[in-house]
């Protein structure tokens, strides 16, 4: 692969002088799980998200699961979210026995369409989970207003949107709980698995802290079903170092995304991501749309370019979700995006010349297919 979809080698080479002494310190110190490195990261990440508390965990999936547990959402409850997301968003509902009620996306923003939320609300609805897909914040003002009017909690799935802003405020701390993944390919990625939740509610934070550690509020006392969702010290140390670079990396992503737009605009068979005036997107992925997506993907692969699909099957059409009772055609905007989406290489260390090479290959492929 000449130009990969994602590559963190250069980032880690550059950070090695900062990271390696920490690896040595942790390996020789013997405090491997939670501890001061994780606490230091929690304090810094909460501040970064403009939230009062951060609870560091072992994955974004764990964060979503704990968010529902902390809010005491379970069997018989309904949670509204979107079919255009990674399946983990829905695992959280499955884990607690709640039902996922899906609402289509706005085709331009590609996040949950607030205009369609209200008709999905029933007496059983407890929460709305907007997903800030590809780094683009959902329409949080409208969502928070609907949630407040109906007494619902808002849980942000911010796994793809570290540092993104909605109306000037960072995502994550806008609703009751914000959930992040620190999977290595994310805008803020660990050197292994990682996740966390942020909240302004001290009670919810305390509950999450207990649940992640076998539900121990006191040692050897387990009041409820708990989990081993703890972050390890190495990931806490790495994430603390990397957090200082996040704004710079997000700025680099924006420059690269602008370059893609500039080079690819005006191609009839290619729809580019919409640019919003107020956009606080952090460009986690650059996703173009084409009716000939499969052929473009093949041609890019043949040219050594690592394009990807996020996501080729919307969650309501996944075999694991058949019990929800949805069918093809239920969410036309999500289904259209799933059929047409094509993710182009994007990571902060990507050279502008590499973006040009991707664009050249893509333009050549579009032209060849138009003939
Ligand atoms: C939108 C979304 N939600 C949740 C997750 C789950 O995060 P993790 O892989 O850390 O469990 C991801 C990660 O891929 C994601 O993209």
Molecular structure report:
It is built from eleven helices and 13 strands. It has two domains: 9-104 and 112-243, Type I PLP-dependent aspartate aminotransferase-like (Major domain) (Aspartate Aminotransferase, domain 2); 246-370, Aspartate Aminotransferase, domain 1, CATH 3.90.1150. It is 39% helix and 13% strand. With 371 residues, it is of the alpha/beta class. It has helices spanning 9-29, 36-48, 60-70, 88-96, 140-150, 202-212, 233-243, 246-264, 293-302, 332-340, 352-370, and strands at 53-57, 78-81, 99-102, 125-128, 153-157, 165-166, 169-170, 177-181, 195-199, 216-218, 221-222, 286-289, 341-344. The strands form four sheets. Strands 1-9-8-5-4-2-3 form a seven-stranded mixed sheet, with helices on both faces. A two-stranded antiparallel sheet has the order 6-7. A two-stranded antiparallel ribbon has the order 10-11. Pyridoxal-5'-phosphate binds at residues 59-61, 85-86, 88-89, 131, 157, 159-160, 181, 183, 195.
Please give the structural blueprint:
Elements: H1 9-29, H2 36-48, E1 53-57, H3 60-70, E2 78-81, H4 88-96, E3 99-102, E4 125-128, H5 140-150, E5 153-157, E6 165-166, E7 169-170, E8 177-181, E9 195-199, H6 202-212, E10 216-218, E11 221-222, H7 233-243, H8 246-264, E12 286-289, H9 293-302, H10 332-340, E13 341-344, H11 352-370
Parallel strand pairs: 2-3, 2-4, 4-5, 5-8
Antiparallel strand pairs: 1-9, 6-7, 8-9, 10-11, 12-13
The structure holds pyridoxal-5'-phosphate.
